Each structure stands twice: as structure tokens, then as C-alpha cells.
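Researcher: Re-running this chain for the archive, since the previous output was lost when a drive failed. Same request as before.
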Amino acid sequence: MEPGNSDRVPTGIDGFDDICGGGLMRDNTYLLAGTAGCGKTLFGLQFLYNGATRFQEPGIFLATEERPVRIRRNAAKFGFNFEALENENKIAFIDASSTKIGMPSVEKYVDIRRFDMDNVIDQLVAVQEDIGATRCVVDSSTSISYMLNDPGKVRVEMLRLGSTMEVLGLTSILIGEMVPGDPTRGFYVESFLTDGVIVLYNERVKSVRLRSVEVYKMRGSEHSNKIHPVEITPRGLLIHPHEEVYGE
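Model: Regenerated C-alpha cells:
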């Protein structure tokens, strides 16, 4: 296990911990928002993979949109062998997507009951107890909001989800979707209820797409107020902490 501050949970993502004081605050919940293609899911996977392989912190990936079999396949392209970690009880995928679309699942952790917050929380509690998880990624919180389909209920249920993860001792990332040209989408309720907001951008600059990251909010921690360049490399995300996209 690499040494570190016990109040911090390092992501291990190259360059990211440098712009937020050494990592995320322990037991806090963060919104990771961004448009399509900016690297949101990859960020979450690296957070869990690094936790399990470098920091001895087991993790949970709650998949509400994409089936775990596809997530593992895409992760393997970056050298992340999640199946091996699952066999060692260091990582657990909860399949909350197959039942929602009426497909069978062969996952170890799958809920065949109706998709609602009670069932989601029941699964999180059971899996956390099973593997002793201290990290969690929910991909995505936006799909949960759409399923609830009521702004008042979304606020209450997201608060309940975040509080449950905190009580379970989970440092968590909720992945939220942003609509291009409408930055308020994806910041909705989650931005007020979470302890921090991290935004990944994938903007067109002339004839190319430029990826970048901004720590929009991080309660209880100093962080960079600049927007930093991001690369997707064969080993995952790489942030350039000493460069800025809109510098002079």
C-alpha cells in the first residue's frame, strides 16, 4: 500500500491528485459530470482499479446504464484486468442495467427486482459487507434521476443514496451526464447534494476535440481553479496539472 494522508483517498490518476490536494476527501461523495466522450467512465474505472491494486481499497461499480460485461471489455483495452480483481473479492460489479432492459444476467451481483432506490441501497449494503469496499462508482446518477422522474423525489433519494454511502464508509463518485451547449444539465440536484463536483470537457477547438478537467467544487479541500488538459492514453487518463487550457 502506498503511503498517504488518511483523510485523503488518492485516485492514482496521473496528475489529477496534484490539482486537488492529494486526492478526494475520505467518505465523501462527488459528482463527476461531463459530455459524451470526455472519459467519465474511464475516470471511475481508474479510481476503482488503482484503489484495489495500489491502495488496498476494494471497490464497487454500480452499473445502471451499460452491462458489466461491456464495461470489463472496454477496461481491458487499457490494461485493467477487473475479472482477476473480482476473483480476489477486491472489486464487485452490481448489474442494475440488465433487469431494467429485460435482459438476463450472469453477474454475481444482480438484482432481479424492480429498479428503485430501495433495491439499489440494499445491494450496496450487501456488497459492501461482502467485500469490505471503501470506494464506489455509480454510472450513472443521471439514469437514476430519469427513472425517478420527479424533481422532489430525485432530491430526497439522491440525498439518501449519498448518506448511505457515507455511513458505509464509501468514498464515492456519481457519474452525471451533461448535454453539449447546456452546462446546467448534469449539475442539477447532485451538484448541491454532493461534497464536490469534477467536470470533464470534450470541446471542439477549431478542427480538433480538446479534453480537459475542472475541479468545480471540493468541500473541505483546496483545489486548482484552473481548467487542465486531459489525454486518453493506452494506460488511461492523464491530466497535465501544470498546464491550463485557457492560460495567457
